Amino acid sequence: MLQIKSFTFNPFSENTYILYDETKEALIIDPGCYEKQEKGVLYDFIAKEELTPVKIINTHCHIDHVLGNAFVKKTYKIPLWFHAEEEAILKAVSTYAPNYGFAQYQETNVDHFLKEGEIIKFGNTELIPIWVPGHSPGHLVLFHKKSKQCIAGDTLFQGSIGRTDLPGGDHATLLNAIKEKLFTLPDDVVIYPGHGPSTTIGYEKLNNPFVGKNAVN
């Protein structure tokens, strides 16, 4: 049975997720831990639950979602996976990280480029990557079909959507991708976003001011 543990890290209040099942194998999604205390929180949870991390997955590679990549990769000796179109986004982080107060940011390299529909396996669990561009060019959403749970990164939030004014972003592309990719999922699918509280597909289809039933764009 899939378990999802969330942490809120760094000044951007980014949601980092650990996904694991009864085998104790785990994925670490978007590690945003930067300060020593944040890294300790993540490490202590993994130790307490006796988990074995096997992969890092970045839904996308903006700074707030990758600050802990190097720490996690070094600590657990595990590979980093994300979509090919995010590589340039990741490489750019080191050039602007000091401007945001992250002078100790450590760069790391990708080990595998994920493609839409390529099954991500860990333990007895399988996730389906769904390409939802617009916030960033290679943004992936990770869907667990059996439990109807979705790690959505910065695509769809409770009552909002991801910003599209960063390099590689496009507002119309994101709106279309949400409607064509995410809104075709069942209404009771739970969305775990990159920031803020969880929501459901059904709630956002009715109420989201950007892509919901009464949205005016």
From TrEMBL:
Its cofactor is Zn(2+). Residues 13-195 form the Metallo-beta-lactamase domain. Keywords: Hydrolase, Metal-binding, Zinc. Coiled coil: none annotated. Signal peptide: none annotated. GO terms for molecular function: hydrolase activity; metal ion binding. The keyword Transport does not apply. InterPro entries: MBL_Glyoxalase_II, Metallo-B-lactamas, RibonucZ/Hydroxyglut_hydro. It holds the Pfam family Lactamase_B. CDD domains: metallo-hydrolase-like_MBL-fold. This is Metallo-beta-lactamase family protein.
